[in-house]
Structures are given as structure tokens and as C-alpha cells.
Amino acid sequence: MHGIETEAGQAGCTGARLQAAQVVLRRALLTALAVVISTGTAAPSVESTRTQLTAYLGAVQLPDGAFADSNASNDSHITPYRGAYAAIGLSLTGNAGASLRFARWYVAHLNRDDQWGPGCTIYNYTFSRQPFAIASTKSAGAIDAPAGVFLTALRYLYATGDPRARAWIATEEVDAQCIARAAYGLYQPAYKCTQAVIGYNFCLTEDNFEVWRGLGDIAWLEGNAWSNSAMRSTYLSDQSSIGDGLAQMWDARDQNYSWARSTVNGAFSRSAWSQFYPGSVTQLWPVIVGYARSDDPRSIELWQSFKTAWPSMTSASPVRSPWPWTAAAAARMGDQQFVTDYEANLNAEYAARGYPYSWEVNDAGNMLTALLWASDQRSELHFNRGKRRVSRFRCICRYSSLRGRASSTP
Fold first, then answer.
1. For 390, which DSSP code?
2. What's the predicted TM-score (pTM) here?
3. pLDDT tens track for 154-168
4. What is the SS3 assignment for 207?
5. Is residue 61 packed enough to be buried (19+ CB in 10 Å), middle (13-18) or exposed (0-12)?
6. CA pair distance 351, 362, nearest whole angstrom
7. How many Å from the N-terminal Cα to the C-terminal Cα in the chain?
8. DSSP characters for 69-137?
9. Buried b vs exposed e over 338-368: b needs ≥16 C-beta within 10 Å?
10. Quick one: which of 181, 302, 324, 362 is 20 to 30 A from 277 by CA?
11. 197 membership: H or E segment, kind and range
12. Largest pairwise CA distance in the chain
């Protein structure tokens, strides 16, 4: 059975107990199948949503591999940060070809140590359709987060196992290291956090969670794709430093994470549950990026507080963006009901209209991610920083109940 290991020998199960357990499991599966058949919605709905989202991303991928921000007929914007999240979702579905095209585009449009920061930064772009052409805006909303997210996208692309993707990534160590310098280049030693961009004197908590994850991902690639143990250790050390800075973002009085910190005087911008973004959403990042475990009491409390603050999130976003990233957080937390409700309500409302703006490419990627993570939870297999593992009970006889970024300024 997919997602369940029977290692009876390892667990010391007797044949009789194993047989009894198999009977129980068979009955449970038949019951679950009956529920799906009777409702006629569960599995087909999710598969249909994946197909629709993949088609949406195929339609907004431009001839050069970049992603337009949305499918609006008058949209002329390319935001690499958003595109990286689209690529992550596509890689999770096994669509390595589209993700590879985006990755190649990203690397081909890097800047080397420019006015906005060190390392290989990337600008936002505009485009025209007839004839097709793109032009740099010579600016970006941030430098650290786009670089961090792209490093994560690169790892997910490698994890597809696609031969062409792996062959290309094998040649990209130097570029990846240059991108990592952009992610970490504005590191503030006094506060152990990265400044978003030159001239903006704040460390954003969200960005730093994305940088923390990205540094871990390039460390993984150094060890697994490029066999560079020295650089792997360097990036793990850098990641640890960012992790220490993120720990300082915790507000013991309010029992949540501050959403920013001044690089001038170290003052924190405190989060309020009454503010959706960035205050409330900031609390979801620790579990999304793997900084915190889903079964940690703090993670559980933050997730419950988020749902209490925004009880209608699955059917009506409190802001213009639909924020399916909240469904991804729910998937990480094992909150299948939230994911199901979001997919059947808010996502379905957009899907029925062809995912019009304000649905954007990162939303499509994040919704795919939510569905894939939730599927892994349901099959009792979790994507844990690149390793698939059985989360519970190595022996079947030991059974029991299985259980867009927006811009803001402090």
C-alpha cells in the first residue's frame, strides 16, 4: 500500500497480529473508498484543481521562460520572486520542463554586484506581447528574498530527478553561489538578519525565513549535486546565524513574531493579529519553511490563533490577494479540513472564472504546493527537507488512528 510499510520482521510482529492488522486496514480503506464514492467530490476535485492550475501556469509562461505576473490581458509585469514560487509548485507536480525553462531564464538575467546589493541580484521586468520583448525596470522590491526563494526552487527542480534538469544544475554551482551572496549579502551582524535592499533599513521577518530556507537548500545542493562539503558547511553556518536572528524576532509579550526589525537601532515592528499582512501572515512562515516543527506547541498555538483571527479565510480573503499560502501552512500543520475547505471554496471561486487577477502566478504555485503537501500528509509520507519518510508506525500491526507577497513599510 502506498505510504505504509509493513516491516513485520523489524517490528517483531507475529503472523496472526499482522493478519489481524491487515483486516483492519482493509476495512478502513473500504470505508474511506465508500465515502469518496458517495460524495463523488474528494479525489476528482483535487486532481481537477491540479490540472487547472498547471494549465494556468502554462498559459502565463512567456516564450523566454519567464512568468507573467497574472493572466490579465493588460498585465505586462514579470516578478522573478513570484515566478520562483510558480516553479516550486510545478516541480512538485513533476513538471520539470516548465520549471527548468524558468530557472534558465532567471540565471540568464542576473546582475553582478549592482547598486541594490552584492552578489547576483535580479530586477523585475516588463514585457510586450506583439512583438514579444522584455525590459528591465532596473529595480526590485527586495534582494534577499527572491534569491532565497530561487535557491529553494533550484533544489525542488533537482529533486524532480529529471535528467535534463540535473545535468543543467550540475553546471550551475558558481551562479548559485553568486545568488546566495545576494540572499545573504546584506547580513547585519549586530542583529543576525538580512536587510531587504540597500536603502531600506529593516530586516523583514518573512524575507529572513525565506533566506534561512534558501541557505539550507543550497547547502543541500552543495552536498548532493556538487559534492562540495566545504561550501555545504559554510552555508549551514550562515543558515544557523539567520536562525539565531529569527529567534530574536519572537515577542515574548505578544507571543508571536515581530514582522520586522530596524537595522538602525534594532527596534522591532510588532505584529498584531488584527492585521492580516504582514502581522498575522508572518506567524505562518516558521512551519512553512521548516524552521519550526508542526507538532511544536508554539506552532500549534500560532496556527490556532491565526484561524481564530481570520475565521473566514477559506472562503473569503480579507485582502485583495487570495493568499493560498495559508492553505500551504494548513497542509504543513496537518489541518486537512482547512485545505479541503480552501480548495472547495476560495480556490474554486477563482477557478470558475479562469483564475482572473488578483490571482497571480505565485498563488498558483502555492496552491499546487498546498495540495501536494496535503496529499503527502494523507498518504503518511512527508517531504522533509528533501527526504521522504514514513511519519508513523513502521509496522502495520502497531496501528492506531492516523491522524504574494506584498510590499509594506514599518
1. E
2. 0.83
3. 999 999 999 999 999
4. helix
5. buried
6. 15
7. 51
8. S---TT--EE-HHHHHHHHHHHHHTT-HHHHHHHHHHHHHT-EEEETTEEEEE---EEEEETTEEEEE-
9. bbbbbbbebbeebbeeebeeebbbbbbbbbb
10. 181
11. strand 193-197
12. 71
Q: Which three cell numbers stand for residue 361?
A: 502566478
**What does the pLDDT read at residue 93?**
95
What amino acid is encoded at 266 in this protein? Answer: G
Task: Return phi, psi of residue 385, to 5°.
Answer: 50, 40
Three cell numbers at 404?
504574494
Spatial separation of the C-alpha atoms in residues 246 and 116, rounded to whole Å? 23
Exposure of 74 in the CB half-sphere (CA atoms within 13 A):
1
Helix axes 42-60, 361-378, angle to 10 degrees: 150
CB 252 within 8 Å of CB 263: no
Tell me, what's the pLDDT at 379?
A: 53
Q: Which CATH number fits domain 8-390: 3.40.367.20, 1.25.40.10, 3.90.550.10, 1.50.10.10?
A: 1.50.10.10
Phi–psi pair at 189, nearest 5 degrees: -60, -35
Query: Would you give the distance in Å from CA 390 to the centre of its chain?
Result: 21
- The residues that bridge with 129 in the sheet, in sequence order, are 132
Q: Which positions ≥6 away from 49 have C-beta within 8 Å?
A: 343, 347, 348, 351, 367, 371
In the 8-state DSSP scheme, what is residue 322?
A: -
CB 211 within 8 A of CB 224: no
Q: List pLDDT tens digits, range 60-100.
A: 999 999 999 999 999 999 999 999 999 999 999 999 999 99
The neighbouring-strand residues paired with 195 are: 203
Domain ranges of the chain: 8-390
